[in-house]
Structure formats: C-alpha cells, structure tokens
Amino acid sequence: MLAAIPLDLQVHDTYFVVAHFHYVLIGGALFPLFGGFHHWFGKFTGRMMDEALGKLTFWVLFIGFNLTFFPMHLLGLHGMTRRIYTYSSEMGWGPANTLATIGAAIILLGGILFIANVLTSRKTGALAGNNPWDSGTLEWGTSSPPENYNFLLLPAVTSRYPLWTSLKERIAVTGLRSDRREVLVTTLDDAEPHHRYVLPRSSIWPFVTAILVTIGLIGSVFNFQWYYLGMLLATIGLVGWFWPRGSQEVVP
C-alpha cells in the first residue's frame, strides 16, 4: 500500500504507517501462529485445548486488535506523527487514541485467556489421541506426544496425504543403516524412492557460527566497524561448518 507514492506522501511517518504495519504483522502472522498452536497443542502435549475458551480468546483478540489499530489509520490520515509522547488537545486526536488504548487492554485480556487455556488444558484437557483432526500428514500417525524415534519403521511418502496412504498400506523405508544418519531421497514429481543420502555428523560449528555472527551484529549497534569483524568471524565459522569431513556418499 505504501509503495503508492501519492498515498505515501500523505501518510509518511504518521500513525497510519504504525497501523498498516501491525495489521500486516498481527493479522497476517500472529493470528496464524495462535491457530497453529491450537492445532498442534494436542500432538505435543497429549491433551486438547478447550474449544470454547479458544473461540472466546479469538474474538477477544480480534476485537482488541481492530479496536487498537484501526483508529491509528484515521490518526495518521489526520496528521498524527509517529514517535511522539504527547500532543495538544486542540489536535482532536484524543478520542481515537483512547479507543486504541482500550483496544490494547483488550488484547492483553486475550493474551491472558490464551495463557490460562494453555495452563489448564495441559493438565485437564481432553485426551487428544493420535489424530484428533483426522489429518493426513505424518505427524498425526505417531502417539501424542510422540516417542523420541517417531516411527519404528520410517514411512515412505508417496502422496500429499501419506497418513492415508503410506501408513495404511504399510509402505515403509527399509534397508537404511543404523550406524550412521541416512535418509531416503525421493523423486520430485512422483515421490518414488530414488537413493539413500548420508547426512553430516553432529557438529559444534553451527553453534559457533551463530555466536560469532551475534558478536558482530551486537557490536555493530555501537560501532559499525564491528559489522566487518562479524562478517570475518562468520566466514571463519562457515568455513569450519562446511569443511569436508570424509565422503558424503550417495547410495542408489
């Protein structure tokens, strides 16, 4: 929206930008995260979240979200700039800001309801079973919560819904070695078994690389020269990470 120059000239650096950003961030990312948490809660805890409380949480968050950020669009169109902590009453921004404040309190209430639902459902929720949603993907073919090994025999994925095909037809991967990390690689179009691939061994280098990058990025906040040092350190970490260690054989 803000890529449209005539609109951006009007709303640049106003509360419209704040509202637009949060509509995208919360509406497009945070709500799906809440939905995903409710969807998989039963799988990783073994118990279902309370449905009625979940619906109440959604509507409280939905109302609070819109009540908070919709008035900010109007504030921006009326000239309220970002990053100010006070303004004169003559500007007429008070009512919309009051609504936004009430909406923020409602969002907080929705978050409290969500946390309460998690805590109570973890102990007293209905038992989830292996597949409470009758889904077709592999995670629902394991116990809830899953065992450490997930599947005793690794199923071969031959369709978009392997739980309805591979597991029921007992199509499993056999012949993988147990003394090293091997996985089955399939064809792209038909998911037909193609070859075994040997995964790398455990390594400390990914963790070391993350630490080195963090040093450079945090340092660059205070002095940009740290950015170049961080890139150098990250390069050292990446070289150690990807340095060849024995043959990565591909087995037909």
Give a written overview of the molecule.
This protein has 252 residues and is mainly α. It is built from 7 helices and 3 strands; from the N terminus they run αααααββααβ. A 3-stranded antiparallel β-sheet has the order 1-2-3, with no helix packed on it. β1 (182-186) and β2 form a beta hairpin. The longest helix is centred in the N-terminal third of the chain and has 31 residues, at 15-45. The chain starts with a helix and ends with a strand. The mean pLDDT is 87.
Mean pLDDT: 87
User: Which sequence of strands runs across the widest sheet?
Assistant: 1-2-3
Write the H/E string, N to C: HHHHHEEHHE
Shape: extended
Radius of gyration: 26 Å
- Main pleated sheet: 3 strands, antiparallel
β-strand amount? 5-15%
Unreliable spans are none
* Total E-strand runs: 3
Assembly context of the chains: single chain
Helix content: 40-55%
Gap between N and C termini, in Å? 51 Å
The total count of helices amounts to 7
> Based on helices, strands and strand pairing, what is the structural class?
mainly alpha
